[in-house]
Amino acid sequence: MILSVVTVIPLIMPVIIIITLTLIFTPSLPILILFSGYVLVFVIVVSIPLSKMLKAYRCFGEEEHEINGVKLTICKEGPVNAWYDASKNRIYIGDKLLNVLNRDELIAVYYHELGHKSSRLLRFIVAATVTFWLWVTATIIFVLVLHYIGLVDFVSILAYIFSSTLLSTIATMINMWINEHEADMHSINNTNARNLISALAKIYVLAQVYRNQHLKEAVEIEIKNVDIDRLINAAKSLRLRDVVKIILLEGLRVVAGVMKIFNLVIDPLPPTHPPLELRILKISDDSLFCKV
What we know:
This protein has helices at residues 2-25, 31-56, 103-118, 120-148, 154-190, 193-210, 213-218, 228-236, 240-259, 263-266, 276-286; strands at residues 62-67, 70-75, 82-85, 90-94. It is α+β, with helices and mostly antiparallel strands and 292 residues long. It has one domain (2-56, 120-286). The relative contact order is 0.11.
């Protein structure tokens, strides 16, 4: 039942969006022209994250690696990340992580990715919600284009953006974050929660460095120790209002980025992973291995 609903909604959304735009915003514009323009915008919006993803997860060589019977594929000169490639049925680890993660942390990361592999329904739901978000984003951009050529007033744009984009963004983020939390749970059920927390903290620090070109070239990172208890205490200090605030602020940031069309080239999707403190909070709450 869930699968059929998730499948049908993305398929009917373009029709609903086009009818809505035609009836509310531009009733005098021929529907064929409106539909053709919308499809063009949608194709562009979808191609941006796809091209960025293909570029980000490109490997300049692969190497099979085994740790305690666990088989990994090392991605040479790849991203500061690990991922499951469904097309190849492989779990990849970026070679940069080998310099900062110890054996136990690598195994914890492996089981996290294995959690993604095993949760097919969640992967499908995430794909459907991301597709839905891209459709909504394409609609916003198309409405902005209509405004620039004088067919839609700015009040209508603002009303449409804050009634649809914010809700779809938050729904998409929550779906993706749940997917990550479930993979975290799979990892701590098979390994040790403290190893996963330590690995996530190290990956977070390393990723921050590699986002800055100058730092990436000038700094050589070696992280030996992580104060796990301190991280858990900091995460447990979060209250419900803090979590809601984080979600709303992330949603508003994405909505503001949609208004700046060229920002989509830099950051085309909502945050796919929950903030580190939320992940640690969830892991520590659900694990018997974390002792504060």
